[in-house]
Write a structure and sequence with these properties.
Elements lengths: L7 H9 L5 H19 L2 E4 L1 H12 L3 H5 L7 E5 L26 H8 L3 E6 L19 E2 L2 E5 L5 H8 L5 E6 L5 H7 L2 E4 L20 E6 L2 H11 L29 E4 L10 H16 L3 E4 L4 H5 L2 H11 L11 H11 L3 H22 L4 E5 L18 H9 L4 H5 L3 E8 L5 E8 L4 H14 L11
Parallel strand pairs: 2-3, 9-10, 9-11
Antiparallel strand pairs: 1-3, 4-5, 6-8, 7-8, 7-12, 11-13, 12-13
Helix pairs in contact: 2-3, 11-12, 11-13
Length: 464
């Protein structure tokens, strides 16, 4: 029987060698979704007919054509923020429940053309406005390690689908931590690439003034690198272009860097770090030292340095979606939406100027180091319905989710979240690694080394 937690690259090898037919793979994972999705809320739309059509198309290819496809026979999902021409794209909003995009997103085309099998579209909070996937149009994304707890957000459905073995890989987005936070909550690998690495076409040239990126999420570093090779690249006319890598990203997995100089930030003035998170982070730093690297504490608080500029840009971005009926918006997200509507053009330009200038300072402070280590989240996953504990505390409690992730959306540096142990309640904890500008190759090699030192692929949630 097929292992639902099989890595995507292994599944591709089996399909290419004829050990499994794409149709068998599609049927297996569609059944897995049917068995688990009502309990976990990963998918809001299952595209079974499309999955079987993808499989049948792939089975008609020659051996040589199959071997040329990096995702041949590998099922995947798309976050419901990604345009799909033949299916609704709702942004998690009741205002867009029936919206049909005029074209497929470029990344949707790339994943299909690479040989992937589309299983469906995953759940998200409205407009990506929460760090947990609840409220708005979609059901809550429940953590497979304990369904009473959140799977994170805003790419929560994508993370839950992979963590529960409903799909080997998934595509999401990250504008303040939206791929890294659910990766941390669910015990996965989530990569926010460098700004301009993956196009936003044709929906937009950029999102949230460059803060948001399309992103891969998977169980292992190798699968994330495999996805990045498929998804990466600009479209002519894009406002940001990351320089092409020296070689395919997948090759970084076999590198083992030596004697790195690493920085570590483990605290912020804006929110306390949970003791279990802090303990796990200290343990990760010791693991890097045991690998022969130096780890130097760095007295810097990037989220404080950026001040209100990030929240101004995000609120304006949330309000830019527009809504025919604001009363239909999730009350928590509506606060961000309404604040964004009040931002003047001058205020927005000032916020962007501050964001750029402070980001330059942050990157310059980090330049002497090969990479930065932080916890992914200051907090542990919360119970569903408990974030925020009260509506008026949303902004305050949100900081516990954003203090380590959001600054690197501003700087545009690539950052990755890796599994880093469990809480006493059995919920995953994440470690974030941030590399220099445009250095996903270096980032993936460091991540692969940590994965080798602290293997987690065999850890599976208790789903029965």
């Amino acid at each position: 029987m097929l292992d639902p937690y099989i890595e995507g690259w292994k599944l591709r090898e089996m399909a290419c060698q004829g050990e499994l037919r794409p149709r068998e793979i599609a049927e297996f994972f569609l059944q897995r979704v049917a068995d688990l999705n009502s309990r976990l809320g990963a998918f809001w739309l299952v595209t079974a007919d499309r999955a079987m059509a993808d499989a049948e198309r792939l089975e008609k290819l020659t051996s040589a054509e199959r071997a040329a496809l990096p995702l041949y026979g590998v099922p995947y999902s798309l976050k419901d923020m990604t345009w799909t021409k033949d299916f609704p794209t709702t942004f998690g909003s009741k205002n867009f429940e029936n919206f049909m995009a005029p074209a497929d997103a470029e990344i949707a085309l790339r994943l299909r053309e690479a040989g992937g099998i589309l299983l469906g579209k995953t759940t998200m909070p409205e407009f990506g406005g929460r760090p947990t996937t609840e409220g708005g149009l979609h059901p809550p994304a429940r953590n497979p390690w304990n369904p009473d707890y959140t799977g994170g957000g805003s790419s929560g459905g994508a993370a839950v689908s992979v963590a529960a073995g409903m799909a080997p890989i998934a595509a999401g987005t990250d504008g303040g931590g939206s791929i890294r936070m659910p990766a941390s909550c669910c015990g996965l690998v989530g990569l926010k690439p460098a700004r301009g690495r993956i196009t936003q076409a044709p929906m937009q040239g950029e999102a949230w003034h460059g803060l948001s990126s399309n992103c891969p999420i998977a169980r292992t570093v190798r699968d994330v690198a495999l996805m990045l090779d498929v998804m990466a690249g600009p479209v002519v006319g894009d406002p940001y272009w990351a320089p092409p890598p020296a070689h395919p990203f997948i090759r970084a997995i076999d590198r083992r860097p030596t004697q790195l100089k690493l920085a570590a930030i483990a605290a912020s003035a804006l929110a306390p770090v949970d003791p279990e998170v802090g303990g796990a982070f200290d343990s990760a730093c010791e693991a890097f030292r045991a690998m022969g690297h130096s780890v130097e504490p760095l007295a810097m608080d990037p989220i404080v340095m950026l001040g209100e500029s990030v929240s101004t840009v995000i609120c304006a971005g949330v309000s830019s979606y527009g809504a025919a009926d604001p009363e239909k918006i999730d009350p928590i997200v509506r606060k961000l939406y309404e604040r964004g509507l009040k931002v003047s053009a001058a205020d927005y330009v000032r916020a962007v100027r501050t964001l750029h200038n402070v980001s330059r300072e942050i990157v310059q402070r980090l330049a002497p180091y090969d990479a930065l280590l932080t916890p992914t989240l200051a907090c542990t996953p919360t119970e569903l319905g408990k974030m925020p504990s009260a509506p008026e505390r949303y902004t305050e409690e949100l900081m516990g989710w954003l203090i380590f992730t959001s600054p690197f959306n501003s700087t545009g540096q690539p950052a990755i979240s890796l599994p880093n142990g469990f809480t006493s309640k059995g919920l995953p904890i994440g470690l974030q690694i941030v590399a220099g500008q445009n250095d996903e190759i270096g980032l993936l090699s460091i991540a692969a080394a940590f994965e080798e030192a602290r293997p987690w692929q065999d850890k599976r949630p208790p789903l029965g």
